[in-house]
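Q: Here's a chain of 213 amino acids. Please give me its 3D structure as tokens.
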Amino acid sequence: MRRRAWNAREGLRRLGSKVSVQGEANVLDLGKARLHGAQIEIRGNRNLIRVHPTCKLVNVSFRLIGDDLRVELGERVEFSRWGHFLLMGQDAEIRLGEHTTVESARFIAHSGTVLAVGPDCMFAYDVEVRTSDEHSILDATSRERINLDKSVRIGDHVWLGARSVVLKGVQVGDNSIIATGSIVSRDVGSGVVAGGIPAREIRDGVTWDRRRL
């Protein structure tokens, strides 16, 4: 594994990328993926970044701070502007399904959560998906945290419009569309258009196509 990680880092440097890894049993499984301007920072143990060889990533950063954190990008995932992956704590995971395309987006996952995106999804620019509020909200009496981290699932063939945000604990059904500027704080069904703050379903019985028909 050391040899594989070292070779991957050397290849990234040739493409103007930066890699910093500290800890034990960390794996960069990048194969022949095209990563231009990538930044990779790992601080911890047993962390994994696995990128399918057919991926094309422009200005994408990976920051894994903790142990047993995982990022996996499926076949032909593409980022055309920029992307940011942040995983912190223990045992968190981010997965993007095959043929998913992203103009620019942030993906954030914290301890014990999974952020899963299905195949053939389309992200416009400045989209954010997160499993955590990052900071704590406490009950004033008990001092217990009440805004617990929760996993997120975005289904197959979902279109997320520009500047949309998907918050912790949300599930978005297959073939749905999230309108520009929406904040999704509750589940969205399959085959619907959802929009607003907070987002609500405004039309059902739909699907979408990447082509302008």
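Q: Can you summarize the key feature?
A: The chain has a mean pLDDT of 92.
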